[in-house]
């Protein structure tokens, strides 16, 4: 089962594939360091540019960006008390007070070492857990695959928190977008309105760029951020090997890695929750909890190790079942589809070199974090905060247009992307979750095809969907995911009243 | 105090829910011409959108009756509208005037309009970005960009 993992290793060391990870990590740190930009947005903008690249080069870039951005978010969190990514909120609690005391450099070094450890643990979890899970899912037939898709959508809607009605609307919208184009079985047009450009359906990249890249650009132009550069000018960074002996946080790193991996696997949870839980646990078990919040380096370590431990582990359900654990994982699924790699059990059977190579790239990306973001580079990355946001916004607009135009060489796709962007901005402002839209688009066609196949096998009898144990377990899990949060809330409310 | 009838109907969530209902109902019409099995999933999703949006609308109106203020979608609507218009204009300009001219104008124009006022910085950034795009995409990858419908190309 794990022999494929070793066979994939030589490909990862091809210079183009390795360079892709290096470039990805640097780009990820830059993106993460810019408040308002996220790994999701960066990967969305990047995906169309990877069409002509080898799959491992493209996936290496994505793995690097994901790892880099999760650490990069700590830079403004420490220096400005503005989390560069949502997962870096908990980093501000102790990181910013450290910067105010003139220990910003050490805080960033703690962050980078912790991020790296979390990323390494997460990559190992992906390597160990994904292959056996993929073997199990290989046994699934059309009705089980249909229920896996339904379970995936239900999990991301109901476990994501927030308003379930908005989550459901997002998912319905995503699934509806997935049916636009020719019917996969009968070939008749659905909702194309005579537009030849829509016959093949809507390319996922157009949706990704619109939903995830346009709203942050509008944010960049809407709210100019003024930085005084005070904290970034007094980092006081010493070489990382000199700082390492001061970092004795093994228990926190271990606990945070475990929490991050676990939360990453759960669909819909994400890095913010992992960081908060790890921070709270570390504080609860600390001998000096009163120093937390006033510049305790262990607080930075707890938050950063957990938010990076959730990166590769979020891909465990994504690669094996096609259910992403986080928004970034959902976008990465889109990246896999662009290269003709359908996430799910067949991926491991048909493309072992690519899928296992991708896992190695995650591991190397996490190790490279310390080398690329650790010492002198920390100072340089901190200076990124002074980049003018309007200029950055205008450059991203150009990149978005180039990326989407180059998919098919037509402006129709650009206009479509702008339409999705406007929808994405409204959804973002009204707090409609975006991951269910992407997942709906990915799983919609997949679910429909398998539903219709299952119904054909059962000669039109819908009971075919409930005729085996695996399907029933998946139905029960779906019901649990849908009903569970409501029951839990009622239980907590009734205990409070009592 | 409960909001006036007019302001209750212009709450962002109410407007959005209403919009979804109208658009989804419009998309339902073509499903009648499809085979039943082809129409199953799209019709289910559209009906789902209509029902869920109705719930959303009702929930928002209940909040309005309870005197709960709607959160504004933006604190600076002019900047947001301006940003959207500039992005759409850039896409149209690329289509009708051509990619390189539009890009060379858009980068400094957007950055200047939204607060970056250094002429030298703008010039350097524009030259670097346009030059890099030309070197990588046009020269390196032979990628064709729109040359402008107005020029008949």
TrEMBL record, chain A:
Lineage: Bacteria, Pseudomonadati, Pseudomonadota, Alphaproteobacteria, Rhodobacterales
Natural source organism: Palleronia aestuarii
Segments crossing the lipid bilayer: 12-33, 45-66, 106-129, 136-161, 167-186, 198-218, 259-279, 314-338, 358-378, 390-407, 465-487
Domain DUF112: 19-439
Entry keyword set: Membrane, Transmembrane, Transmembrane helix
Pfam family, one: TctA
Protein name: Putative tricarboxylic transport membrane protein
UniProtKB/TrEMBL annotation, chain B:
Domain of life according to the entry: Bacteria
Alphabetically ordered keywords of this record: Membrane, Transmembrane, Transmembrane helix
DUF1468 domain location: 19-143
TM segment ranges: 12-30, 36-59, 80-101, 121-141
InterPro entries registered for this protein in UniProt: DUF1468
Signal peptide: none
Protein name, per record: Tripartite tricarboxylate transporter TctB family protein
Organism this protein belongs to: Palleronia aestuarii
